[in-house]
Structures are given as structure tokens and as C-alpha cells.
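Long-time lurker, first post. I've been practising inverse folding by hand and with some scripts of my own, and I keep getting stuck on stretches where the C-alpha cells seem ambiguous. Below is the full C-alpha cell string for one chain I'm working on. Before anyone asks, I'm not after the true native sequence, just a reasonable design that respects the backbone. If someone could post their per-position residues I'd love to compare against what I wrote down in my notebook.
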């Protein structure tokens, strides 16, 4: 039976070179640059001491041009038509056994199943002292000691082999490759067991792996969405609480300051920022306004006030915004309760509609006092309350 040897690992680790070393050919394209030359798996068959081998070189993981999943799918395709069994996987790496290396190795375990580690040979390339057993053992031990994961990976694998497959330019005799080949083939010769490969099972493994990643990504997105929503609700609650706090503070401040003022129940005139005085029309149906009027601030319900004119009528703001008028009914129930909102020496007059009394910009108070329906700080009108 032909022994199928699958060479896998990350791009640039030396897979194709190792393939050439084992087969004593140049059938696999070696790339001097960090890019993957192997865009498709490639099989080279040869025999050694009466044993036939298929050496299968694959696209490296971490290839820049191909996605991880595509690479895995192609790796599975490499089996189709070649074989339904696997004699040995050679996992190639060079340098440190980094986290990327660990991830790549585990990914392959995932495709072939955990059982595969017993037919996996880890080959470290670019190791100049590869013929020195002690140096090789020390290096292997260092990798085992690196962390838990490397410990599990290296201890569970079939064998750990070091090579240094220099190019002809680097070593014209290619002695290192010959030596490496000997080491590798002695090892492969002893790899008599093979595990069956089931294309569908491998595809299922790959699919469920990416499905798990997808599911986790979706769960994560959903968690993030919920968190963002909670934060938004919290921020809104905080905003409302802050608004409420400020409102209360303003009311408390207004009340405190109002208590300290001497315009209660005294005659005052209300002067607007144009220097004009407030007058309110005595006839709610006409826009006629009399000459400047004297008002009295009557405290009602704590910080709320009613504004009474000199003729005993109360000022009332029309919610429609067409004007502030005197209430002819002079009925306490109909009084409008205003809140005086302090602003320096001035006061904003806030109606119970939540709108501010505002004097007509063009004509001034001597013609009309009106309600500003826009509650906007800049639009507030502030008045001087002048005792007379
Ligand atoms: N010195 C040295 N160079 C190597 C070794 N293995 C591979 N290389 C070089 O590393 C580069 C990438 O090798 P290649 O086999 O194409 O990597 P692949 O992407 O894994 O197939 C090439 O220039 C090789 O000559 C090795 O063991 N020692
Ligand atoms: Mg290659």
C-alpha cells in the first residue's frame, strides 16, 4: 500500500523544500520570498527500499492570497482522487513555535480529528545543528517548556525532527539535504500505521468549526448590541435625572432667592431688555395695550407667583402664544401661575405651559407681551423687576 505523507504548515516554513529533500527532486517549487509559491497541492510519488510514497505538498496556512478556510478546503480536496488513507502528516515550522503556529497546528487537528497527532511528525527546518542529537533534544525540550499548549502538542506528536535544508547556493553538495532525507526516511519507514481519511467527515469538521466561529461572532455582536442598548438607556436615564436635578436646583435657587427679594406684594414695573415696560391688554379680544402698568407679584404655592396688574386683574399667558393678557374674570382659579427663573439681576417668567413670557421684539411691551413657544435659553427674555 502506498504511504501518503501530507506536508502541512505555515507559508514559508519550508514545506516545498522538505518535499524536495524527501523525494530528492526539485518537483516542488521553493520560494525564497515569504510568499507562497504553492497555490495548489502537489503530489510526487517515489519509492524507497521497497516502500512507495506519495508526498503531498499543500498551500501554507497564513497565505496572504488565500483565506484560511479556502486553504483547508483545498487540503481536503488534496485527498480526493489520491487516497482514502493517511500514513503521516508532517507539520513543518521554523523558528519559534509561536501562538500562530499553535493555532495553525490546532486547526489541522480539528480537520483531521484529535487522533491525528499520533501520526503527526513535527519537523523544524533551518536548524543548523540538526545532526547533533543533544542540541535537537534541548531544542525540543525548550519548546515543550514554552507553555501548556506547546507541551501538549509536542508530547503527543509521533516524532519531532530537526532539519536544515539549505539551497544549492548555500551548500553546493546539498549534504544537509541528504542527511535530512536519511533521518526522515528512517522515520517514515517505521510509520506503518495509516488512518482512514473521510472527505465528508473532514468537510463536516471544517464546516462546524467555521459555524462555531460564526455563531460565536453573532453571539458576541448580540452581546455588544445589548450592552450598547443598556448603555443608551442608562445614559438617557442619567440625562433625565440630571435634567430633573437641575430643574429642582433651579427651583430651589429660585425659591431661596425669591424669599430674599423685596418685591413681594409691592408695586413693581417689569422692564424688558429693550428698556421698555410691560403692559398687558385689558381686553382679551383686542390687541390694544394701555400705557405701562404697575404689577404686584403674589406668591402662590411656594416658588410660584401670580402677576396682578394695578387694576386688580391678573396676567395670563395664552398657550397659543398670541399674547399675554389680563384676565377679566379675575377668578383665582384662572390665575396663571408663573415661575420666576433667576438670571443674574434679571428674571425669566416661565408660564405653566413651560414657555417663557417674551416681549414683542418689534413693538416692545408697550404694545404687546407675547408667549414664546420655543423654550430655548437664547430665546428667553429676562426682565428687571423694579419696585416703585
Ligand atoms: N537555510 C534553510 N533554508 C530553508 C530551509 N527550508 C526552507 N528554506 C528556505 O526557505 C524558503 C521558503 O521555503 P519553501 O519550501 O518555499 O516554503 P513553503 O512556503 O513552506 O513551501 C526558501 O527560500 C527555502 O530555500 C531550511 O531548512 N534551511
Ligand atoms: Mg510551498
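-- Answer (accepted) --
I ran through it position by position. Result:
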Amino acid at each position: 500500500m502506498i504511504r501518503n505523507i501530507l506536508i502541512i504548515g505555515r507559508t514559508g516554513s519550508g514545506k516545498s523544500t522538505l518535499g524536495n529533500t524527501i523525494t530528492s527532486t526539485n518537483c516542488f517549487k521553493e520560494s525564497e520570498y515569504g510568499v507562497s509559491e504553492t497555490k495548489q497541492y502537489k503530489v510526487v510519488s517515489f519509492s524507497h527500499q521497497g516502500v512507495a510514497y506519495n508526498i503531498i505538498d499543500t498551500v501554507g496556512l497564513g497565505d496572504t492570497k488565500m483565506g484560511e478556510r479556502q486553504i483547508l478546503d483545498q487540503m481536503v480536496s488534496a485527498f480526493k482522487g489520491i487516497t482514502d488513507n493517511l500514513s503521516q502528516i508532517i507539520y513543518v515550522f521554523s523558528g519559534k513555535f509561536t501562538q500562530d503556529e499553535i493555532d495553525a497546528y490546532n486547526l489541522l487537528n480539528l480537520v483531521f480529528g484529535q487522533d491525528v497527532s499520533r501520526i503527526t511528525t513535527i519537523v523544524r527546518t533551518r536548524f543548523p545543528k540538526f545532526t547533533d542529537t543533544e542540541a535537537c533534544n534541548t531544542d525540543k525540550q525548550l519548546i515543550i517548556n514554552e507553555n501548556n499548549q506547546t507541551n501538549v502538542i509536542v508530547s503527543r506528536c509521533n516524532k519531532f525532527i530537526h532539519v536544515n535544508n539549505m539551497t544549492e547556493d548555500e551548500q553546493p553538495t546539498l549534504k544537509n539535504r541528504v542527511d535530512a532525507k536519511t533521518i526522515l526516511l528512517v522515520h517514515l519507514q517505521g510509520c506503518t500505521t495509516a488512518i482512514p481519511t473521510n472527505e465528508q467527515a473532514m468537510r463536516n469538521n471544517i464546516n462546524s468549526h467555521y459555524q462555531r466561529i460564526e455563531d460565536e461572532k453573532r453571539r458576541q455582536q448580540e452581546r455588544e448590541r445589548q450592552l450598547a442598548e443598556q448603555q443608551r438607556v442608562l445614559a438617557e436615564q442619567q440625562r433625565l435625572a440630571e435634567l430633573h436635578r437641575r430643574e429642582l436646583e433651579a427651583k430651589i435657587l429660585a425659591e431661596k432667592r425669591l424669599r430674599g427679594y423685596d418685591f413681594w406684594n409691592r408695586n413693581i414695573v417689569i422692564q424688558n431688555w429693550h428698556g421698555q415696560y410691560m403692559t398687558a391688554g385689558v381686553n382679551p379680544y383686542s390687541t390694544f395695550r394701555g400705557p405701562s402698568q404697575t404689577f404686584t407679584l403674589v406668591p402662590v404655592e411656594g416658588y410660584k407667583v401670580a402677576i396682578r396688574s394695578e387694576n386688580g386683574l391678573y396676567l395670563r399667558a395664552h398657550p397659543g402664544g398670541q399674547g399675554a393678557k389680563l384676565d377679566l374674570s379675575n377668578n383665582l382659579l384662572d390665575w396663571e401661575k408663573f415661575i420666576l427663573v433667576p438670571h443674574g439681576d434679571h428674571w425669566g417668567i416661565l408660564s405653566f405651559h413651560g414657555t417663557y413670557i417674551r416681549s414683542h421684539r418689534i413693538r416692545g411691551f408697550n404694545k404687546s407681551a407675547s408667549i414664546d413657544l420655543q423654550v430655548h435659553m437664547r430665546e428667553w427674555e429676562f426682565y428687571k423687576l423694579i419696585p416703585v
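A couple of notes from the structure itself: The CA atoms of residues 156 and 175 lie 31 Å apart. The radius of gyration is 44 Å. Happy to go over any region you disagree with.
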